[in-house]
Structure formats: C-alpha cells, structure tokens
Design goal:
Layout (H helix, E strand, L loop, with lengths): L1 H21 L2 H4 L10 H19 L7 H24 L26 H19 L3 H24 L2 H4 L9 H17 L4 H7 L3 H29 L5 H46 L9 H17 L6 E8 L1 H8 L1 H18 L5 E6 L2 E6 L7 H12 L3 E4 L2 E4 L1 E8 L7 H17 L5 E3 L4 H4 L15
Length: about 475
C-alpha cells in the first residue's frame, strides 16, 4: 500500500503536466468548474512521490537515499519562496516558471499556487528530510498528520461546497486533486517508518493495531459520507432541516454502535486465541510430551499444595501411588525403543482410565509413574485403585509378532501427620514400591514406617525412553 500512496500522487502530477502541455483541461482540473492544478504544484507532486518512493526503496538500494534529499529540499525552497510572496511581499515567480504563457488563459483567475498548498509542500519537505536523517521521526509523523488534516479539510470543503475550507482569503484555492494527492503523500510519509511513534500502534499485528486500522478509516469516512447524504437529501427537498439532523444523528448512533460491536467481537476472538495459546503453553510446560500425563514438576507442585492444605485444615485422606513397569527393559531390548514408547503411551491411557476425576496421574521419567489420589472416602480406596490398575494392565505386550511379559509394581504411601513435604511422601511411596518389587513384582505394597528402617529405597530406574516435557 505504501508504494501506491507514493505512485498515485506522482501520476496525478504527471497527468496535470501533460494537461498543461497539450491543453487537455480534464487533466488539469477534474471538473471545468473547479480550479486547475498549478504546473509547479504538479512537479512538486512528482518530486514528493519520487522522494518518498526512494526512501521506501533505499533499504534495497541505499544509493536512492541521496536522491530523496534534493527532491525534498527543492520542494521546500519553492514552498518558502511562495510563502514569502504571500506573507512578506517578496518578488513573485515561485509558481510562474512552468507554462508561464498558459497560466492566465482559460476560465477563472490566473492559476497560482494556493497558500495552503505551499504550506503543505513545506511540511512535506521537512518530513522527507527528517526521514532521510533518521531523527525526529515522531515529529515527522506529527507534521504528516497536520498536512493530512489540512488536505482533508479541503476535500470536505469541496464535498459540502464550503469554500473557506479549501481556500485562504482572496487567494486561489487548493485544487481538489491537489488536496487528494497531499492526503496520499501524508499517508506515505506515515508508512515510511511504521515501527516508531503513533504508527507503531496502528501497524502492529495485535488487537490494538487491528482495532485502529478498522476504526480510523470509519471515523473519517463515515461522518463525511453521512453528512453529505444528509445535505444532499435536504437540498433535494426530501426533508426539512430538523428531520435531516435527526436522521443524521440516528445514522451516526447506529454506525457507532455497529463499529463498537464489530471491534468488541474482534477483541473477544483475539482474547479466546490468546487464552488458547496460554493454555497450550501451560500444558506443554506441565505435561509429558510422550504420554500426555502430568510431568514431575507439575505433580510435585500439586502434591506440595495438597500437603500444605492438609496441614492447615485436614479435609480427607489422600495417597501417592508410585509405579514402575516390570519387563520394560526387555521390551526395549527385544522390540526397540519405538515399541517401548507405544507401551508407555498405552500404560498412560490405562492409568487415566483407572483414575478418578480428582486424581492426578503423572510420568516421572522412564517407566516410572505416579498417581496422587485425593479426596479418598477411606484410606482403603488407595488399595482399591492399585488393584484396579493391576487387573487392567495386560500380562504381556505384543508387537510385530513378538510378546514380552510385562507387569507393574505399585508402592502406596498414605499421608501421615508427620509428613510435611512432597519429597518425603514420594520417598515413602518409593520405599513401598521397593517392598513390592522384593515381594515378587506385579503387586502392590503399602508404606509402613518400619519399612524405611529395614530396607533402602531403589536408587535407579530403567533407562528413560523419551525426554520429559
């Protein structure tokens, strides 16, 4: 879009010069009743568009930056000359050195550069120079906005037939296609550095940028368009002034309400996307990639929270089930790690199926799993859960025509008053698991404080099959 904003004003200026050269009135002025674009103004449009285009392309072709300064300086000198004629009575000639013999011909007064046109050229020159030196970029955007407002005021004046909006005193007014070209060049100036100042808000890809890009054009075009329609209807005799004002007010209310609803809808959709992304990130950070179960960090945080809650206000019994697959190393050795991954995933599904809604199943690493069984109606419910897991897990794992015996050993640790940390409770469950392994595997054991004095918990597990989340 930024290239169109520079090319269109340059094209308008080129067509205006062609109109002066070959006496084609429609190229000089859009309508025979309107003022023509001065030839020097037309040349300024070409130079302004070329300077901004050179700035846009200077990233790829740095040599073009040297072209922008002469164009901007030339526009500024002509503008200063013209303004000094108007304000200080300096010698005329700033806008007379192109097609001089034709400026006094045709309908209307002698064609000259309008004061507001000269002011806009001066501001355009300052913007081009600031963009070239890379300093005062926010100031350049503010100046571009002022130029755009002057141009928009002229366009509104032509739309509503208010000459004071596009003319200054007795001087020749700004042509309508001159105002349009300045408006486009102001837009090109703003898009020259969209990463700084107010434009950084407008052009960002977030909800704020999308809202700004939706509301700003509507805030400009809708009131102008509806105002014109209201005035046209009144001039056509369709309604009186009072009814026209009422219709205009109602139309504005409806348009504003629609805009608010539309943007609220967009923001709501953006919020849903953000929440979904946050939930996905949270899930990745707290769950095992291979099995989808909670990872060690999440499990320990949840267990710590439950122990702290129990210390403040005892609610209901809870337990930790520590599980280790039997025969997992043989599956890895005989069938490969891919088959072992599938086995871990199937075990994870069995644990989810056997657990209650209030339980938390986790994979600590390798072939080690845990379940935090909360809100137990009675302590013996932990035993029931372990029996359900043992009954559900198959006795052998088959893949590619091979079958390997498997099982699962479970250690159960019920929370006791003296247990104050998650690490301590997990060690108790590990000690019970060690007892289950010594008891022949494929069974469960419940932690007894005397076990920690008679046996040592396991020091290692099978080789991890997949990295943890």
């Amino acid at each position: 879009m930024k290239y169109a904003l520079t090319l269109i004003p340059a094209l308008i200026g080129f067509l205006a010069l062609a109109g002066w050269n070959w006496d084609i009135e429609i190229l000089k002025r859009i309508d025979p009743k309107l003022v023509a674009m001065n030839p020097v103004t037309a040349l300024g449009m070409i130079l302004g568009g070329a300077a901004l285009m050179a700035h846009h392309w200077s990233i790829r072709l740095p040599l073009l930056r040297k072209f922008a300064i002469p164009c901007g300086a030339g526009i500024g000198l002509v503008a200063l000359w013209k303004l000094s004629e108007i304000l200080l009575g300096a010698a005329p000639g700033a806008d007379l050195w192109l097609f001089t013999d034709k400026l006094d011909l045709g309908p209307g007064p002698s064609n000259r550069m309008a004061p507001n046109t000269a002011a806009n050229f001066l501001m355009l020159s300052v913007v081009i120079i600031l963009l070239h030196i890379g300093r005062g970029l926010v100031l350049a955007q503010v100046i571009a906005v002022v130029s755009a407002l002057i141009s928009l005021l002229a366009i509104v004046g032509y739309t509503y037939g208010i000459s004071r909006f596009y003319g200054v005193g007795l001087f020749i007014p700004m042509a309508v296609h001159t105002a349009t070209s300045f408006l486009l060049l102001a837009g090109a100036s703003l898009y020259a550095r969209p990463d700084v100042g107010p434009m950084a808000v407008v052009t960002n890809d977030g909800p704020a940028g999308r809202m700004a890009r939706t509301l700003l054009p509507c805030a400009i075009l809708l009131p102008i368009g509806m105002g014109w329609l209201r005035l046209a209807g009144q001039r056509a005799g369709l309604y009186e002034n009072e009814l026209g004002v009422a219709i205009f007010v109602i139309a504005n209310v409806l348009a504003l309400a629609l805009l608010i609803w539309w943007n609220a809808r967009q923001l709501f959709a953006a919020d849903l996307q953000r929440l979904d992304a946050e939930n996905q990130l949270r899930h990745v950070a707290t769950h095992d990639r291979l099995t989808g179960l909670a990872n060690r960090g999440f499990f320990m945080d949840r267990l710590t929270h439950r122990i702290n809650l129990e210390q403040r206000r005892p609610v209901a019994p809870f337990a930790v089930l520590y599980m280790d697959l039997d025969g997992f190393k043989q599956v890895n050795d005989k069938m490969g790690h891919a088959a072992g991954d599938v086995l871990l995933q199937e075990v994870a599904q069995i644990l989810k199926k056997c657990s209650r809604m209030t339980d938390l199943a986790a994979r600590l690493g390798g072939d080690e799993f845990t379940i935090l069984a909360e809100e137990l109606a009675r302590p013996d419910d932990a035993r029931v859960l372990a029996e359900r897991i043992l009954a559900t897990l198959p006795r052998a794992y088959a893949a590619d025509g091979q079958a390997t015996p498997i099982g699962i050993s479970i250690g159960i640790a019920l929370h006791e008053a003296g247990v104050t940390s998650a690490d301590e409770m997990l060690r108790n469950a590990d000690t019970a698991l060690y007892q289950a392994k010594r008891g022949g595997k494929g069974c469960f054991a419940i932690y007894n404080p005397s076990d920690s004095q008679q046996t040592e918990p396991r020091r290692g597990t099978s080789t991890p099959l997949a990295p943890m989340a």
